[in-house]
Amino acid sequence: MPYFYAFSVLLSAFLLFQVQPLIGKYILPWFGGTPTVWSTVLLFFQALLTGGYAYAYGLLGRLHGRQQGLVHLALLGLSLGLLLLTALAWPSPITPDTSWRPGGSALPIWEIVKVLAVAVAIPYFLLSSNSTLTQAWFHRDYRRQTPYRLYALSNAGSLLALISYPFIFEPFLSVRAQGYLWSAGYVVFAIGAAYLALRTSRRSPADDAQEGDDPHAGRSPADRPGPPTPQSPRPAQRRASRERPAAPPASEAAGHSRDRASLPGADARPGLGIHALFDPERSSDLLRGRG
Length: 291
Prior knowledge:
Blueprint: H1 2-27, H2 35-62, H3 65-89, H4 109-141, H5 148-172, H6 175-201, H7 205-213, H8 235-243, H9 250-259, H10 272-278, H11 280-287
């Protein structure tokens, strides 16, 4: 069963980064190919990506397991229905026909947003939320396994999409064929995501309340830690605590304040994304500042 979660995360990340150059290249000639077109496309996808993250965190934070699954199932069904309608009317399910080509607007920003919203907004929104939702549901179902390997698989899927598109898909497939192939991949993703959402929707509120009250839910009684045993400090520890100064010297504190950057995350190690790809557990420590 954990492999099903892994496949869902890998496929969603791959599709997420495949559709951006595909649809961007398709509508570029419609609007003249100016830098404004590319900037608008990037802004649109970035806004949807942020919205997908917000949706996932809102769903996990405000709704119980059953409600999470039902809401997500409804959105997945809506996206598949729209994909079917566009497949009947357009050259491919995500490439609009020429009737959507603008007439000659001097400022085509809203026209670009409208075309992108109709073509890929809902599928892209759901793809962007999948990694967060799947990791949370995986951790709920398999508490003794780390979810950070799914984070690494998400990075791998994104990297594979960015590398494969200019070397495999773009040179050898037409835009129409790319659209149908991407749509077929999305249908496979939607079926897998619907299965996971259905598993979540079958959870009762009592199960969620039990997991919220018990931090060791999912473990067998033999694996649950017992109550801590009070221990008195050793003499060496008592002497060290008496000899340790209450605060560092002023010069040392000033040196630390000069050496450390004032912006959060300014001392992050370069290449953290690649590090997460090969060592997800260690990368999670780096992200928390324990490296």
